[in-house]
Amino acid sequence: MARWVDRWPNPARVFGVLEILIGLIAVVIVPIHGRIPEVVRALVAAHATNYSALLQWQMLVVIAVTIVPTC
Q1: Number of domains in the chain
Q2: Which residues, at least 6 apart from 57, have a Cβ–Cβ distance to it below 8 Å?
Q3: Host domain of residue 64
Q4: Averaged over 10-27, what is the pLDDT?
Q5: Residue 64 domain-assigned?
């Protein structure tokens, strides 16, 4: 970030916008977290015979839900 922050005309504004976006994304993701058990249950039912595929799908769900708020 140090390379890019010097190019921004108003770094405080960029920081503020990023903080607001993080808050909005958190508000959107909270209801999704409540549905994770249903998704995992469906994944287990669909991939009960293939444990490797089950783990891969579960990992994709975790990444999809957590990638945006952690960036």
Answers
A1: 1
A2: 43, 47
A3: 32-71
A4: 88
A5: yes
Mean of pLDDT values over 31-50: 87
HSE-up of 19 (CA within 13 Å, CB side)?
Answer: 6
14 within a domain of the structure (yes/no): no
Residue 13 in any domain: the answer is no
Distance between CA 43 and CA 56 in Å, rounded? 10
- Read off the tokens for 40: 């995992």
DSSP class of residue 48?
T
51-70 and 11-46 helices, crossing angle to 10°: 160
**Helix spans in the chain (H):** 2-5, 11-46, 51-70
At 67, is the pLDDT very low, low, confident or very high (cuts 50, 70, 90)?
confident
